[in-house]
Amino acid sequence: MKYNEFADTEADMGALSPLKVFFRRSSNAEGRGNLTALPLLWVRLVGYGYACARFTAEHGDVGIRPQPFPAAELIAAAEDDPVRKAATGIAARFDAVLNDASDLDQRPGGPPP
């Protein structure tokens, strides 16, 4: 499902209203106008998006069509030179973390408690 398809559904948009406060506060932090101006938050959001994209790609039909997710390109949009320079390495770490988690799930008895 793409955003325009989601927007056309009968989704409970009221349930999303707490996010308005989050994004308003984030976008106004330090007088800046967007989330890329907050590099640590931006990298975390991109990482979460990447994990979701990978999940949909690996687990088939979850109601959302898998889409390419250019994590390194998105990270490089951060308004922080060290983060921009490390974008490819940070994106690779996303894979390493997700691969480690996947390895834990494959162990006999499942992941540790």
How would you characterize this protein structure?
It contains six helices and no strands. It has one domain. By secondary structure, the chain is an all-alpha fold. The mean pLDDT is 78. It is 59% helix and 0% strand. The protein has helices spanning 3-7, 17-28, 39-58, 71-75, 81-85, 87-106. The chain starts with a helix and ends in a 7-residue tail after the last helix. The radius of gyration is 17 Å and the shape is globular.
- Beta-sheet strand percentage? under 5%
Distance between the termini: 33 Å
SSE pattern, N- to C-terminal: HHHHHH
Summarize the main sheet: none
Please state the CA-atom Rg, rounded to the nearest Å.
Answer: 17 Å
- Ranges where pLDDT stays below 50 over 5 or more residues in a row are none
What integer is the average pLDDT? 78
Given the helix and strand composition, which structural class is it? mainly alpha
The percent range for helix content is 55-70%
Q: Count the domains.
A: 1
Shape: globular
Topology:
Blueprint: H1 3-7, H2 17-28, H3 39-58, H4 71-75, H5 81-85, H6 87-106
Key features of this structure:
single chain; 113 residues
Short description:
This protein is mainly alpha-helical and 113 residues long. Helices cover 59% and strands 0% of the residues. The mean pLDDT is 78.
